[in-house]
Amino acid sequence: MSRTLASLVDAFVVAGLGLAARLGAGALRLVVTGPPFRLPDPPAWLSGLCGWTIAVLYLAGSWVMTGSTVGDRLLGLRVTARSGRPLGVLRALSRAALCLVFPLGLLWIPVSGHRASVHDLVLATAVRHHGR
């Protein structure tokens, strides 16, 4: 349950980052072309690609730098390699991409004896509570 709540918090953070990016692009357009202020209206495929990229970079960057996203920190979680060491850049990027491409992998957690998602099993990662 705590991983689901952390993911929900992180989805709001990513949405906020996406909104900030759109506002920044609108402000840049205003500076370059002048009034009126307008938000960019990119094609759906470009919006999707940008959102996916923001999410991957947010997740992977958080796991590499601190081991925790904002949602993880709020719920006392840390993502590590199975050995307990911090994630490297490639493993963090792979885990972030896999989490976004296959979110249903989280459904394996209640079945797993180690409370591991499919992402954890494939990439030899673990989600631990800070006190453990």
From TrEMBL:
Keywords: Cell membrane, Membrane, Transmembrane, Transmembrane helix. Residues 1-122 form the RDD domain. The keyword ATP-binding does not apply. Pfam families: RDD. The keyword Signal does not apply. It is a multi-pass membrane protein. The chain crosses the membrane at residues 44-71, 92-111. It comes from the Bacteria. It is found in: Cell membrane. PANTHER family: PROLINE-RICH ANTIGEN HOMOLOG, PROLINE-RICH ANTIGEN HOMOLOG-RELATED. This is RDD family protein.
